Amino acid sequence: MWKAVIKDVHPDLDGEYPLEWEFKKREWRTIKKIADVTPLELVRELKRGNMELNIALVAVALEQARKPYIEEMLWADEGTLQLVEEKDADASPPEQPQSGGRPSELNKPSGATTSGTSEPSQATTTGNGSGTPDSVTPAISGPATLAT
Known about the structure:
- By secondary structure, this protein is an alpha+beta fold.
- The chain has helices at 25-35, 42-48, 51-64, 71-74, 103-106; strands at residues 2-7, 15-19, 80-85, 121-126.
- Helix 1 (25-35) runs antiparallel to helix 3 (51-64).
């Protein structure tokens, strides 16, 4: 599940808003207006770390939550805007029995393991544009750079 997180922008806007990725025409219009990105360009621009697209997606999340906003507030120098993917721990596939032994024994990882908590991937855009997105979609890994 993806969400937009707005922090220290405006008391009426600060908070977390879910982002549904199946956009309606009105939401594509918002993305085109703010970021000048079409549906065919979306993935490429996400990989590039397009700051305008990040702001547009935060605006879409606000619209999906039916939260009124003034676009200029999203461009303010104060505060941060983030797109965060939360990994759902319950979304793991069920254990499948394999030949011999109990499934719980067969599926145990070998070697050192880490705790079951997962850190969310995030793309952060600060009001002054100095954000460095780490990841914007599940298929993207590593830091993305903003084109000038």
